[in-house]
Design goal:
Helix content is about 55%, strand content about 5%. It contains 15 helices and five strands. The strands form two sheets. The protein has a three-stranded antiparallel beta sheet. It has a two-stranded antiparallel sheet with strand order 4-5. Helix 8 packs antiparallel against helix 10. The chain is globular and about 65 Å long. The N terminus is likely disordered.
Protein backbone atom coordinates (compact mmCIF):
# COMPACT_ATOMS: atom_id res chain seq x y z
CA UNK A 1 0.00 0.00 0.00
CA UNK A 2 1.32 3.48 -0.86
CA UNK A 3 2.26 5.79 1.98
CA UNK A 4 -0.92 7.89 1.94
CA UNK A 5 0.32 10.22 4.66
CA UNK A 6 3.36 11.03 2.53
CA UNK A 7 1.14 11.58 -0.51
CA UNK A 8 -1.01 13.99 1.47
CA UNK A 9 2.02 15.91 2.70
CA UNK A 10 3.56 16.14 -0.74
CA UNK A 11 0.35 17.09 -2.55
CA UNK A 12 0.18 20.69 -1.34
CA UNK A 13 0.54 22.80 1.80
CA UNK A 14 -3.21 22.57 2.35
CA UNK A 15 -3.36 18.79 2.27
CA UNK A 16 -0.32 18.78 4.52
CA UNK A 17 -2.58 20.25 7.20
CA UNK A 18 -4.88 17.27 6.84
CA UNK A 19 -1.96 14.87 6.99
CA UNK A 20 -0.70 16.41 10.23
CA UNK A 21 -4.17 16.02 11.71
CA UNK A 22 -4.06 12.30 10.90
CA UNK A 23 -0.66 11.71 12.50
CA UNK A 24 -0.92 8.94 15.03
CA UNK A 25 -3.73 7.22 13.18
CA UNK A 26 -3.48 4.29 10.85
CA UNK A 27 -2.38 4.32 7.23
CA UNK A 28 -5.96 3.32 6.45
CA UNK A 29 -7.19 6.68 7.76
CA UNK A 30 -4.94 8.68 5.46
CA UNK A 31 -5.81 6.43 2.54
CA UNK A 32 -9.50 7.05 3.19
CA UNK A 33 -8.94 10.81 3.13
CA UNK A 34 -7.18 10.54 -0.23
CA UNK A 35 -10.03 8.46 -1.60
CA UNK A 36 -12.52 11.08 -0.43
CA UNK A 37 -10.89 13.83 -2.49
CA UNK A 38 -10.13 11.68 -5.53
CA UNK A 39 -12.74 8.96 -5.92
CA UNK A 40 -15.72 10.37 -4.01
CA UNK A 41 -15.69 13.97 -5.28
CA UNK A 42 -15.45 14.04 -9.06
CA UNK A 43 -16.26 17.69 -9.77
CA UNK A 44 -13.01 19.71 -9.60
CA UNK A 45 -14.77 22.87 -8.40
CA UNK A 46 -16.49 20.99 -5.58
CA UNK A 47 -13.22 19.28 -4.71
CA UNK A 48 -11.41 22.61 -4.37
CA UNK A 49 -14.23 24.18 -2.35
CA UNK A 50 -14.50 21.22 0.03
CA UNK A 51 -10.74 21.03 0.42
CA UNK A 52 -10.60 24.70 1.45
CA UNK A 53 -13.49 24.17 3.87
CA UNK A 54 -11.94 21.10 5.49
CA UNK A 55 -8.50 22.67 5.78
CA UNK A 56 -10.11 25.62 7.54
CA UNK A 57 -11.88 23.26 9.95
CA UNK A 58 -8.78 21.15 10.58
CA UNK A 59 -6.69 24.28 11.20
CA UNK A 60 -9.25 25.34 13.81
CA UNK A 61 -9.12 21.87 15.38
CA UNK A 62 -5.34 21.99 15.54
CA UNK A 63 -5.49 25.39 17.24
CA UNK A 64 -7.87 23.90 19.81
CA UNK A 65 -5.73 20.73 20.15
CA UNK A 66 -8.65 18.58 18.97
CA UNK A 67 -7.78 15.37 17.17
CA UNK A 68 -10.00 13.35 14.85
CA UNK A 69 -10.71 10.87 17.66
CA UNK A 70 -11.70 13.72 20.01
CA UNK A 71 -14.32 15.18 17.68
CA UNK A 72 -17.87 15.44 19.01
CA UNK A 73 -20.96 17.29 17.76
CA UNK A 74 -20.18 19.95 20.38
CA UNK A 75 -16.86 20.84 18.74
CA UNK A 76 -18.31 20.87 15.24
CA UNK A 77 -21.18 23.10 16.42
CA UNK A 78 -18.71 25.45 18.11
CA UNK A 79 -16.73 25.78 14.89
CA UNK A 80 -19.87 26.43 12.83
CA UNK A 81 -21.04 29.04 15.35
CA UNK A 82 -17.69 30.82 15.24
CA UNK A 83 -17.54 30.65 11.44
CA UNK A 84 -20.94 32.34 11.24
CA UNK A 85 -19.51 35.48 12.82
CA UNK A 86 -17.18 36.17 9.90
CA UNK A 87 -18.76 34.30 6.99
CA UNK A 88 -22.07 34.40 5.12
CA UNK A 89 -24.72 31.70 5.73
CA UNK A 90 -24.12 30.02 2.33
CA UNK A 91 -20.40 29.72 3.10
CA UNK A 92 -21.11 28.32 6.56
CA UNK A 93 -23.54 25.78 5.10
CA UNK A 94 -20.92 24.72 2.53
CA UNK A 95 -18.32 24.20 5.26
CA UNK A 96 -20.76 22.11 7.29
CA UNK A 97 -21.67 20.08 4.20
CA UNK A 98 -17.99 19.31 3.59
CA UNK A 99 -17.42 18.23 7.20
CA UNK A 100 -20.59 16.14 7.21
CA UNK A 101 -19.75 14.46 3.90
CA UNK A 102 -16.24 13.59 5.07
CA UNK A 103 -17.66 12.29 8.36
CA UNK A 104 -20.04 9.99 6.52
CA UNK A 105 -17.21 8.73 4.33
CA UNK A 106 -15.03 7.97 7.35
CA UNK A 107 -17.88 6.15 9.10
CA UNK A 108 -18.47 3.94 6.04
CA UNK A 109 -14.73 3.22 5.94
CA UNK A 110 -14.84 2.29 9.64
CA UNK A 111 -12.30 4.98 10.51
CA UNK A 112 -14.58 6.61 13.10
CA UNK A 113 -17.62 5.06 14.85
CA UNK A 114 -19.98 7.95 14.19
CA UNK A 115 -20.24 11.20 12.24
CA UNK A 116 -19.75 14.11 14.67
CA UNK A 117 -21.33 16.55 12.20
CA UNK A 118 -24.50 14.54 11.56
CA UNK A 119 -26.54 16.21 14.31
CA UNK A 120 -25.18 19.74 13.80
CA UNK A 121 -27.53 22.20 12.14
CA UNK A 122 -26.36 25.03 9.97
CA UNK A 123 -27.80 28.55 9.73
CA UNK A 124 -31.16 29.08 8.12
CA UNK A 125 -30.84 30.61 4.72
CA UNK A 126 -33.77 31.00 2.36
CA UNK A 127 -33.35 32.76 -0.98
CA UNK A 128 -36.47 33.80 -2.87
CA UNK A 129 -34.81 36.09 -5.37
CA UNK A 130 -31.41 35.77 -7.01
CA UNK A 131 -28.78 38.49 -6.79
CA UNK A 132 -27.34 38.00 -10.28
CA UNK A 133 -27.58 41.30 -12.22
CA UNK A 134 -30.08 41.05 -15.07
CA UNK A 135 -30.03 43.14 -18.24
CA UNK A 136 -33.17 44.83 -19.46
CA UNK A 137 -34.26 44.21 -23.04
CA UNK A 138 -32.81 47.57 -24.05
CA UNK A 139 -29.50 46.89 -22.30
CA UNK A 140 -29.20 43.47 -23.94
CA UNK A 141 -29.74 44.99 -27.39
CA UNK A 142 -27.25 47.72 -26.56
CA UNK A 143 -24.68 45.12 -25.52
CA UNK A 144 -24.94 43.04 -28.68
CA UNK A 145 -25.15 46.07 -30.97
CA UNK A 146 -21.90 47.42 -29.50
CA UNK A 147 -19.86 44.35 -30.49
CA UNK A 148 -17.93 44.83 -33.72
CA UNK A 149 -18.54 42.15 -36.33
CA UNK A 150 -15.59 42.87 -38.62
CA UNK A 151 -13.09 41.04 -36.43
CA UNK A 152 -12.83 37.40 -35.41
CA UNK A 153 -12.74 38.45 -31.75
CA UNK A 154 -15.99 40.35 -32.08
CA UNK A 155 -17.68 37.44 -33.85
CA UNK A 156 -16.45 35.03 -31.18
CA UNK A 157 -17.62 37.23 -28.30
CA UNK A 158 -21.03 37.84 -29.88
CA UNK A 159 -21.52 34.12 -30.52
CA UNK A 160 -20.48 33.18 -26.98
CA UNK A 161 -22.78 35.68 -25.29
CA UNK A 162 -25.55 34.80 -27.72
CA UNK A 163 -25.38 31.13 -26.76
CA UNK A 164 -25.43 32.09 -23.07
CA UNK A 165 -28.50 34.31 -23.28
CA UNK A 166 -30.56 32.31 -25.79
CA UNK A 167 -29.98 28.86 -24.30
CA UNK A 168 -29.90 29.84 -20.57
CA UNK A 169 -26.58 28.00 -20.41
CA UNK A 170 -23.91 28.02 -17.72
CA UNK A 171 -20.61 29.49 -18.84
CA UNK A 172 -18.76 26.27 -17.97
CA UNK A 173 -21.15 24.24 -20.12
CA UNK A 174 -20.60 26.52 -23.11
CA UNK A 175 -16.83 26.79 -22.80
CA UNK A 176 -16.56 22.99 -22.65
CA UNK A 177 -18.30 22.64 -26.02
CA UNK A 178 -16.47 21.40 -29.07
CA UNK A 179 -17.31 22.38 -32.64
CA UNK A 180 -19.32 19.17 -33.07
CA UNK A 181 -21.58 20.16 -30.17
CA UNK A 182 -23.27 22.68 -32.46
CA UNK A 183 -25.00 20.37 -34.92
CA UNK A 184 -27.92 20.16 -37.35
CA UNK A 185 -30.60 17.51 -37.12
CA UNK A 186 -33.41 17.61 -39.64
CA UNK A 187 -34.53 21.19 -40.04
CA UNK A 188 -33.28 22.29 -36.64
CA UNK A 189 -29.94 23.18 -35.15
CA UNK A 190 -28.99 22.03 -31.67
CA UNK A 191 -26.51 22.76 -28.91
CA UNK A 192 -25.05 19.95 -26.83
CA UNK A 193 -24.08 21.58 -23.56
CA UNK A 194 -21.54 19.92 -21.27
CA UNK A 195 -23.20 20.23 -17.86
CA UNK A 196 -21.98 19.29 -14.40
CA UNK A 197 -21.29 15.68 -13.40
CA UNK A 198 -20.39 14.71 -16.99
CA UNK A 199 -23.98 15.19 -18.16
CA UNK A 200 -25.03 16.46 -21.56
CA UNK A 201 -28.01 18.71 -22.16
CA UNK A 202 -29.31 19.35 -25.67
CA UNK A 203 -31.35 22.42 -26.54
CA UNK A 204 -32.58 23.78 -29.89
CA UNK A 205 -30.76 26.86 -31.16
CA UNK A 206 -32.53 30.22 -31.26
CA UNK A 207 -32.34 31.76 -34.74
CA UNK A 208 -30.27 34.72 -33.47
CA UNK A 209 -27.78 32.44 -31.74
CA UNK A 210 -27.59 30.36 -34.93
CA UNK A 211 -26.81 33.48 -36.94
CA UNK A 212 -24.05 34.45 -34.50
CA UNK A 213 -22.55 30.95 -34.42
CA UNK A 214 -22.60 30.49 -38.19
CA UNK A 215 -20.85 33.82 -38.76
CA UNK A 216 -18.19 33.03 -36.15
CA UNK A 217 -17.49 29.46 -37.28
CA UNK A 218 -17.23 30.48 -40.94
CA UNK A 219 -14.86 33.34 -40.19
CA UNK A 220 -12.78 31.13 -37.86
CA UNK A 221 -12.58 28.32 -40.41
CA UNK A 222 -13.17 25.64 -37.78
CA UNK A 223 -16.24 23.92 -39.24
CA UNK A 224 -14.26 20.75 -40.07
CA UNK A 225 -12.45 20.60 -36.71
CA UNK A 226 -15.22 18.68 -34.97
CA UNK A 227 -13.26 17.54 -31.91
CA UNK A 228 -11.63 20.89 -31.24
CA UNK A 229 -12.82 23.67 -28.87
CA UNK A 230 -15.65 25.82 -30.16
CA UNK A 231 -14.66 28.96 -28.27
CA UNK A 232 -10.94 29.64 -28.37
CA UNK A 233 -8.40 32.08 -27.05
CA UNK A 234 -6.77 34.73 -29.18
CA UNK A 235 -3.03 35.17 -29.64
CA UNK A 236 -1.13 38.44 -29.30
CA UNK A 237 -1.37 38.81 -33.05
CA UNK A 238 -5.18 38.75 -32.64
CA UNK A 239 -5.54 35.34 -34.25
CA UNK A 240 -7.56 32.41 -32.92
CA UNK A 241 -5.53 29.67 -31.27
CA UNK A 242 -6.38 25.99 -30.71
CA UNK A 243 -6.61 26.59 -26.95
CA UNK A 244 -9.98 26.53 -25.19
CA UNK A 245 -11.18 29.84 -23.72
CA UNK A 246 -11.02 29.80 -19.90
CA UNK A 247 -13.83 31.05 -17.59
CA UNK A 248 -11.72 33.92 -16.23
CA UNK A 249 -10.97 35.07 -19.80
CA UNK A 250 -14.68 34.94 -20.67
CA UNK A 251 -15.53 36.97 -17.57
CA UNK A 252 -12.91 39.59 -18.41
CA UNK A 253 -14.38 39.81 -21.90
CA UNK A 254 -17.93 40.32 -20.60
CA UNK A 255 -16.74 43.02 -18.18
CA UNK A 256 -14.86 44.78 -20.95
CA UNK A 257 -17.71 44.54 -23.45
CA UNK A 258 -20.39 45.71 -21.00
CA UNK A 259 -18.30 48.71 -19.97
CA UNK A 260 -17.70 49.61 -23.61
CA UNK A 261 -21.43 49.29 -24.28
CA UNK A 262 -22.16 51.88 -21.59
CA UNK A 263 -24.09 49.55 -19.27
CA UNK A 264 -21.35 49.24 -16.64
CA UNK A 265 -19.03 46.43 -15.66
CA UNK A 266 -21.26 45.03 -12.93
CA UNK A 267 -22.54 42.09 -14.94
CA UNK A 268 -20.86 38.70 -15.35
CA UNK A 269 -21.27 35.62 -17.52
CA UNK A 270 -24.11 34.34 -15.33
CA UNK A 271 -26.07 37.54 -16.03
CA UNK A 272 -26.83 36.27 -19.53
CA UNK A 273 -28.40 33.11 -18.11
CA UNK A 274 -30.52 35.18 -15.74
CA UNK A 275 -31.38 37.68 -18.48
CA UNK A 276 -32.51 34.96 -20.88
CA UNK A 277 -34.75 33.28 -18.31
CA UNK A 278 -36.26 36.59 -17.18
CA UNK A 279 -36.96 37.69 -20.74
CA UNK A 280 -38.48 34.27 -21.55
CA UNK A 281 -40.88 34.54 -18.61
CA UNK A 282 -41.75 38.15 -19.40
CA UNK A 283 -42.78 37.08 -22.90
CA UNK A 284 -45.18 34.39 -21.71
CA UNK A 285 -42.85 31.42 -21.27
CA UNK A 286 -43.73 29.03 -18.47
CA UNK A 287 -41.59 28.34 -15.42
CA UNK A 288 -41.63 24.61 -16.24
CA UNK A 289 -40.24 25.15 -19.73
CA UNK A 290 -37.64 27.59 -18.43
CA UNK A 291 -36.56 24.93 -15.95
CA UNK A 292 -36.20 22.37 -18.75
CA UNK A 293 -34.19 24.67 -21.00
CA UNK A 294 -31.93 25.75 -18.13
CA UNK A 295 -31.47 22.14 -16.94
CA UNK A 296 -32.39 23.01 -13.38
CA UNK A 297 -33.18 20.14 -11.02
CA UNK A 298 -35.83 22.15 -9.18
CA UNK A 299 -38.28 24.87 -10.27
CA UNK A 300 -37.29 26.74 -7.10
CA UNK A 301 -33.87 27.35 -8.64
CA UNK A 302 -35.40 28.65 -11.86
CA UNK A 303 -37.70 30.91 -9.84
CA UNK A 304 -34.66 32.73 -8.45
CA UNK A 305 -34.07 34.16 -11.92
CA UNK A 306 -37.65 35.38 -12.31
CA UNK A 307 -37.59 39.19 -12.05
CA UNK A 308 -40.96 39.66 -13.74
CA UNK A 309 -42.58 40.79 -10.49
CA UNK A 310 -40.11 43.63 -9.91
CA UNK A 311 -42.09 46.08 -12.05
CA UNK A 312 -45.35 44.94 -10.47
CA UNK A 313 -43.98 45.60 -7.01
CA UNK A 314 -42.83 49.08 -8.00
CA UNK A 315 -46.19 49.96 -9.55
CA UNK A 316 -48.02 48.75 -6.46
CA UNK A 317 -45.82 50.60 -3.97
CA UNK A 318 -46.46 53.84 -5.84
CA UNK A 319 -50.11 53.48 -4.88
CA UNK A 320 -49.14 54.85 -1.48
CA UNK A 321 -49.88 58.58 -1.77
CA UNK A 322 -50.02 61.41 0.76
Amino acid sequence: MADSLALLRNASPTTNVLAAWLDGLSEQSADRILQFFTAEIRNPNTRRAYLRALVSFVTWCNDQHITLRDLTPYYVAAYIEQLGVTHSPPTVKQHLAAIRMLGDYLVVGQIVPHNPAAAVRGPKYVVKKGKTPVLTTEEARQFFDSIETDTIIGLRDRALCGVLVYSFARISAVLNMNVEDYFHQGRRSWLRLHEKNAKYHEVPVHHSAQEYLDAYIEAAGIADLAKSPLFRTVSRSRQLTAKRLAPREALAMVKRRSTAAGIGGHIGCHSFRATGITNFLQNGGTLENAQTIAAHESPRTTKLYDRTRDDISLDEIERVRF
